[in-house]
Design brief:
Elements lengths: L3 E2 L30 H5 L23 E2 L1 H15 L4 H10 L11 H16 L2 H17 L20 H21 L4 H22 L18 H4 L2 H15 L1 H19 L9 H4 L29 H20 L5 H20 L30 H18 L2 H18 L30 H5 L1 H10 L1 E3 L3 E4 L5 E3 L2 E5 L6 E6 L1 E11 L7 E4 L2 E2 L7 E9 L4 E5 L4 E5 L3 E6 L2 E6 L24 E4 L9 E6 L14 E7 L13 E2 L2 E2 L7
Parallel strand pairs: 4-8
Antiparallel strand pairs: 1-8, 2-5, 3-4, 5-6, 6-7, 7-12, 8-11, 9-10, 9-12, 13-14, 14-15, 14-20, 15-18, 15-19, 16-17, 17-18
């Protein structure tokens, strides 16, 4: 039986998600231009084992979040994305005064990465207008040789962040190209964006490509052993896709050739990034210095040769996976190509194991440092929002390639903790860093500007959750996340993860396999269809409901969501489902540094935690806990347990006042023999 979606949505179907050139099927700005067939040609079919790998996320316009998350997203779109001063972030391109090797030119491209999909999601005419104005200013700044940036000629493609800035400018132009098509805009506008992107990429190729006039290769420019500049690989692959679709493979080949040149730089030079061989040898990301490079020890924020920079490393792997997909789609596989995928996968698994903390965040001063085993300690500049967002994007990429739900588990943990914690309560900006213990506050002022990389990058992270919440190819639909939302063919109601249940109602008739992600942390999940319990539900897998759906069929999911203790080096922290819990000074319930007594075991369930009503609207979820806490327990009164209050980590410290202190890891007493 053919599926019929009762909910009125576009039937556009193609095999790739928005950031690889898929417009939202439902644009509230204007009807889609008749370009869907062309857009579908840009597909990069996924390769790995699962038959469901590459399942297409529906467009952002086909998912409408409601409830708590919907309100947070709407605030962010209105106050952050819609509140961005376009003239301000594009002014450096017109002024061209940069002589300190800084990164002012990244802000506009990051803005575009969020503004385009959120314009489609919200239908905001202001954001749509801002996009057009910003693009016009960028195009007006392009020099006859194709350069777009703010560096003088003698400093271009050199030691600073010029190539990094051109990376983000390319991304911004290609987002505009997509946006024009998605909204039925003027062909001339799309052509102008694509032409500008081609001329800019041609400039980079001529300067630091094969035999370039600067006499150096891309990996030899910028910082961090070539990570920053080499991450231009991602927009080069985007450009290749779009030129191939619009002008043919022959016209696009030079961009694929340049991508091959970039990949060679990422894997072959002894002192370069070496993203492949070190990963295949099992060298952890924090330990990759000393293999052909001489790392600096000065501890400065910017280093030329070190390989521990997290944000830029992951950005390179993102582009490398795009390149891998392209070659596989062209039937140009083989062992060297497969090594690219394995290296990225092994690296991501190492990051998840060695670096990601209970909040789903990572890195100290954006450097890998085996942070998972040190997360109880007050390390410098923890969980940069750029790193958080980039980790989510890499997990999203791997989820699409592997169809392994563990990457959705990683996105979920990061989203509900490190990511939402960084977003200011009113949605207007993102914190630069979010310590596991301390307080939240405004980010830096970068490059003599009233903005910074993190607040510019932050909105991109919500897209990972939004795009991957629901995926469908017409035969199989997958729910990766559970939140109140209207999606294509279904209505979902959930207070999750504050509550442990979700309810999905069918607006669909006909045969459809519906897959539900069962989180690895939920040991005993119960799934019911129209009241009947379903057998075979296992944690860490997708559970499939293969059936003929009728209007009004109801799926109910109950997750096993106890509070669990986690112990590390005489410290303890607590999680409930995907959410890290924290004590907050606003509860005024005692000394947050007071130690717990010995005896708690790692993985122990904590039945003494009880969900209670939050004391104010700025705290999402609240729990009281009776714990063996406090010294002087030799005293009959002192030996009694104490009752304290916890909230979700994202709510902790969210006043952004320096007197609002919170804590997630708590000391545990030592014994005399320890």
């Amino acid at each position: 039986m053919k599926i019929q979606f009762v909910q009125t949505v576009s039937a556009v179907r193609c095999q790739l998600s928005y950031p690889r050139h898929r417009p939202s099927p439902v644009s509230r700005l204007s009807p889609l231009a008749p370009l869907s067939a062309v857009l579908c040609l840009l597909s990069f079919p996924a390769v790995p084992a699962s038959a469901h790998a590459g399942l297409t996320p529906v467009g952002v316009g086909d998912v409408k979040l409601k409830g708590y998350l919907g309100a947070r997203l709407d605030q962010m779109v209105e106050r952050h994305v819609g509140g961005t001063d376009i003239d301000y972030i594009t002014a450096p391109f017109l002024e061209k005064t940069e002589r300190k090797n800084w990164w002012q030119t990244e802000f506009w491209g990051k803005y575009m990465h969020a503004a385009v999909p959120y314009a489609l999601y919200s239908g905001s005419p202001k954001i749509a207008s801002d996009i057009r104005r910003g693009v016009a200013r960028i195009l007006s700044s392009q020099e006859p040789n194709g350069y777009i940036g703010n560096y003088p000629d003698e400093l271009r493609c050199g030691e600073g962040w010029d190539v990094w800035g051109m990376k983000y400018t390319l991304l911004g132009l290609l987002h505009d190209y997509d946006f024009v098509h998605a909204t039925g805009g003027k062909n001339a506008d799309a052509a102008a964006a694509l032409s500008a992107a081609k001329r800019l990429c041609d400039y980079v190729i001529g300067e630091i490509g094969p035999g370039g006039r600067r006499g150096r290769e891309v990996w030899q420019t910028g910082n961090w052993s070539g990570y920053a500049s080499s991450s231009i690989l991602e927009p080069v692959m985007w450009l290749y896709q779009r030129v191939a679709a619009a002008e043919g493979e022959a016209a696009a080949q030079k961009y694929l050739d340049f991508a091959a040149f970039l990949v060679k730089g990422l894997r072959e030079p002894e002192a370069g990034p070496r993203l492949v061989d070190l990963a295949l040898k099992g060298v952890s990301v924090a330990d990759r210095n000393g293999y052909g490079n001489v790392a600096e020890k000065h501890g400065g924020y910017v280093m030329k040769h070190n390989r521990w920079k997290s944000y830029e490393m992951m950005s390179c792997y993102q582009g490398m996976l795009d390149y891998y997909e392209a070659l596989k789609a062209k039937g140009q596989g083989g062992e060297p190509v497969e090594e690219l995928f394995r290296a990225a996968l092994l690296t991501a698994e190492d990051i998840a194991r060695e670096e990601i903390n209970l909040a789903g965040g990572c890195a100290s001063s954006e450097a890998w440092f085996h942070g998972a085993r040190k997360q109880h300690l007050p390390y410098l500049r923890l969980q940069e929002t750029c790193v958080t967002t980039t980790w989510m994007r890499l997990c999203e990429k791997l989820l699409g390639l592997t169809d392994d739900p563990k990457w959705a588990d990683e996105i979920e943990r990061t989203f509900y903790n490190a990511y939402l914690a960084a977003l200011k309560a009113d949605g207007s900006e993102f914190a630069g860093y979010t310590p596991l213990t301390g307080n939240r506050y405004h980010g830096q002022h970068h490059c003599y500007m009233h903005t910074d990389c993190c607040t510019a990058n932050g909105p991109r992270g919500f897209l990972c959750f939004l795009r991957e919440l629901f995926k469908s190819d017409g035969k199989t639909a997958t729910f990766n996340f559970y939140a109140s939302a209207l999606v294509k063919g279904f209505d979902m109601y959930a207070l999750y993860p504050r509550a442990n249940t979700a309810r999905i109602v069918s607006h669909t008739t006909g045969r459809l396999d519906v897959r539900l992600r069962i989180p690895a942390w939920s040991a005993k999940t119960v799934v019911k269809v129209n009241g009947a319990a379903q057998p075979g539900v296992k944690p860490g897998t997708y559970f499939t409901l293969a059936r003929d759906w009728a209007l009004g069929d109801v799926v109910e999911i109950a997750f096993d969501m106890p509070v669990v203790a986690h112990t590390l080096a005489h410290h303890v922290a607590f999680t409930r489902g995907p959410v890290l819990l924290a004590r907050d000074s606003r509860f005024a319930d005692g000394d947050l540094t007071e130690p717990l007594r010995r005896g708690l075991k790692d993985g122990q369930r904590m039945p003494t935690f009880t969900a209670v009503r939050a004391p104010s609207d700025d705290i999402w979820m609240t729990f009281t806990a009776t714990l063996p806490i406090g010294s002087h327990h030799e005293n009959p009164e002192g030996q009694l347990p104490g009752t304290v209050t916890f909230c979700d980590y994202a709510s902790a410290g969210n006043t952004w006042h320096r007197d609002n202190y919170y804590r997630t890891w708590f000391p545990v007493e030592y014994g005399p023999a320890e």
